[in-house]
Amino acid sequence: MSAEVDEPGPIDVPTDGRLVFPDEVRASKIIAVLPDVASSDLMAPIEVMIQEKVRAFTLPVADAERRRAVLKIYRRRAVIGVHGVMTVDDVQGLVDDKVAFALPVAATPELLDALRQAGIPSAPDALTPTEVRAAWAAGADAVQVAPADMGSASYGDILTAMAPGVALVPRGGVGSYALRRWLASGALAVCLDEVLVGDVCADGVVSALRERCRSVLQVVADAEA
Q1: Which Gene3D superfamilies match (predicted)?
Q2: Mean pLDDT computed over 52-58
């Protein structure tokens, strides 16, 4: 880990052969989901979020040039993952770019195996308790619960009871109250999209972004107190 990133405290790691998500993800509990916009529109928001101690991000997988532009500047100060529909053919590019983790959608067993062989921890998407249990039983490193807002704010409690022991990463429309509930239920991390990033890539109002970062991180601190 780079010296520019605050050192997290000790964290339990899996002992069942699953790959481990980066320390910044497991310690901060927050993954900022970056929108599908030009890299030039992402730079200032990412800088502000890093300054406010949001250090884990995920980019749409489809645009490799954008990913490389972001990684070139921020690799030493943050961990960058990818999300979206991806194929086995994408994996070598992720390895070359040293992508930290993957949140694949509609992943095939072949893709998940390729990511594992490449050493990239992944959380395939699932929604129902049956789907979540199946993904975990198939060896997923975590399970991306998406879209998380399809259920109530208490859905994390339900999944924890019905899929015990599964490392959950909810994504999609998670607001502050639902964030608190997911963290209380033991989620590995929570993906925040518009709730955190908002319209900053379009309007450039970074002061509001700073306030959202502080509010979200206070929720995390309160949940861990």
Answers
A1: Aldolase class I (3.20.20.70)
A2: 97
Residue 6 has pLDDT above 80, yes or no: no
pLDDT at position 34? 95
Residue with tokens 């884990």: 56
Nearest to 86 by CA among 134, 54, 56, 118: 118
**H-type alpha helices, the chain:** 23-28, 39-51, 64-74, 88-96, 109-118, 129-137, 155-162, 176-184, 194-197, 200-203, 206-224
Residue 195 confidence (pLDDT) above 90? no
DSSP for 30-54?
Answer: EEEE--SS-HHHHHHHHHHHHHTT-
List residues bridging with 171 in a β-sheet.
Answer: 191
The pTM of the full predicted model, rounded to 2 decimals, is 0.90
Q: Residue 146 carries which side chain, given as an amino acid letter?
A: A
Q: Are 198 and 176 in contact (CB under 8 A)?
A: no
Please report the domains of the chain, with CATH numbers, ordered by start residue. 23-224 (3.20.20.70)
Please list, residue by residue across 21-60, b when 16 or more beta carbons sit within 10 angstroms of its beta carbon and e when fewer do: bbbbbbbbbbbbbbbeeebeebeebbebbbebebbbbbbb
Sheet architecture: strand order including 143-145 = 125-126, 143-145, 168-170
- Note the pLDDT tens digit of each residue in 82-112: 999 999 999 999 999 999 999 999 999 999 9
